[in-house]
Amino acid sequence: MISINIDFLTNHPDKINEVSEMVFKEFVVKTGSRKKFEDVVNHFSNTKNNTFPITLIALENGKCLGTVSIFDNDLAIRDMYKPWLASLYTKPEHRGRGVGEKLVAKTIDVVKELGFNELYLRTEDASNYYRSRGWTYLETVSDDKYEKIDVFKIQCI
């Protein structure tokens, strides 16, 4: 049986374009952002493994199955919360195999190693997913782009 390995994107520069494509299609195009693909590639080319932004990828037999990032802030109107889980994405053909859960678990480990006790996230459409996985609902807010953003946190213990 092949196991899924979670590692820093910085250790796999050959996966930057693939991760950029996933995030661009899911979180840029679908949200109507004006960000260009080159901007996304540039962002992922400059992630770190011990300071934000940090990006992790799920690998199986050399294939990238999904990704997640950690940002200092992912919601300008809530800058008192930090850090944030962001851009969790598993390729559709690999969903239902626990890839997302493994990415989140490693994210929590990384955040804890960096000295944080809590991790936050925002979602416009996946509240039930996070609630069912132990995240605590904090509030629903609006910004200039979205009417309803649910904010969650989880303890990193």
UniProtKB/TrEMBL annotation:
GO terms for molecular function: acetyl-CoA binding; N-acetyltransferase activity. Pfam families: Acetyltransf_1. Residues 6-157 form the N-acetyltransferase domain. GO terms for cellular component: cytoplasm. This is GNAT family N-acetyltransferase. It comes from Bacillus salipaludis. The lineage of its organism: Bacteria, Bacillati, Bacillota, Bacilli, Bacillales.
